[in-house]
Amino acid sequence: MEPEAKELNWAGNLSYQARELLYPTSIEQLAEQVRASDKARALGSRHSFNDIADTQATLICLSKMPETIEIDAQAMSVRVSAGTTYGALAETLQAAGFALHNLASLPHISVAGAVSTGTHGSGQAHGNLATAVRGVELVLADGSLHAVRRGDAQFNGYVVSLGALGVLTHLTLDIVPSFEVQQTVFEQLSWDKVLGGFDALQASAYSISLFTDWSGQNVGQTWLKRCVGDGLGDDIAQGKFGGFPATAAMHPLPESDGAICSEQLGAPGPWSDRLAHFRMDFTPSAGDELQTEYLVPREYAVQAIEAIRGLSATITPLLLVSEVRTIAADELWLSGNYGRDGIALHFTWKPQQEEVEALLPRIEEALAPFAARPHWGKLFAATSAQLHELYPKFNDFIGLAQRLDPAGKFRNDFLNRTVFGA
């Protein structure tokens, strides 16, 4: 079927080029659509800012597939349909007394899309969202069903897969007992004190986000998410990092309404309502923004932050806000944190794509000494040759993709440019 008009991504900066957009309603129909296509890509919640999900042939959207959320309390796992949003999953888990170990900023994104691109969340002790995956189910290029579980050969290549192996249908995730979180926000912490005590600051909460525009001597906002009763000291409240506590609900953008953000001011509440930055029942913005993000080894955190601060004169005029977070290491082949604890340097840009894309090589050059890996679903300039040097298992992933999809049904311009080098 021909779409009535070109479909757009969430931000509106990309028009999908597919000649058809299909909405299967069953596994059998999905398998047949994949088998019959010459080129295909899966389309999730459209919260990617580049052409990772695009194709000129067949786009397959799973939003009309039956939603599955099957909790196994004995195994401490949940089997979830690929198109389910984290918001819907979190609500169901919380109602049953369970939780995920982490959530991204937005609960509106699909589980499969977030996992496949290595999307993370925050907390120095917590791996990205993909690290919770213990089982993967997908439709291969020939329409057959394929499943792998943690411990199987090459499992770590299946998880952050960029859609290159097949169309995900279900994922099985680790779950933990539900827990409560208190979120507090501090304004205008001193950059000098934050960088001088970076490790102590990061250890002071379950999850910490620094929001900044990179100008000036202070961090704009610091969001702390703490487990109720965790017993952590409060160096921030004691003034060791400067700044002062916010007295009203804050939004990362100072001019925006904090009411659409997860509850703050220290009010305790379930993880499902606190770990994400934004409420599920609000759209966090109109979408007219661009995003870029780089994952840097933890040992280079201070140097990398200082390098970006040094580019403030060129970054800040194009910027809406930046966020700095920490993520634990993992063993997933194409994860931004494969083999290393790290920090994430996130940039939310004004919708000026030409100017932003012209700036990205300069940012990547500044971060090159720190082996920065770009987020797969956001804007970046690096090519396959450059990325190959950043991932020890890059060739292993290419081999896995060639074995599962020898004719390249799931390849597109993005994968050819950033992975396969064709």
From TrEMBL:
EC class of the enzyme, as a word: oxidoreductase
Signal peptide positions (record): none
Keyword Translocase: no
Domain FAD-binding PCMH-type: from-to ranges: 14-178
EC code: 1.1.3.41
Protein name listed in UniProt: Xylitol oxidase
UniProt GO molecular function: xylitol oxidase activity
A Pfam family hit: FAD_binding_4
Sequence intervals crossing the membrane: none
Gene3D superfamilies to which the protein is assigned, alphabetical: 3.30.465.10, 3.30.70.2520, 3.30.70.2530, Uridine Diphospho-n-acetylenolpyruvylglucosamine Reductase, domain 2, Vanillyl-alcohol Oxidase, Chain A, domain 4
Keywords, alphabetical: Oxidoreductase
Superkingdom of this protein's organism: Bacteria
InterPro entries on file: ALO_C, FAD-bd_PCMH, FAD-bd_PCMH-like_sf, FAD-bd_PCMH_sub1, FAD-bd_PCMH_sub2, FAD_lactone_oxidase-like, Oxid_FAD_bind_N, Vanillyl_alc_oxidase_C-sub2
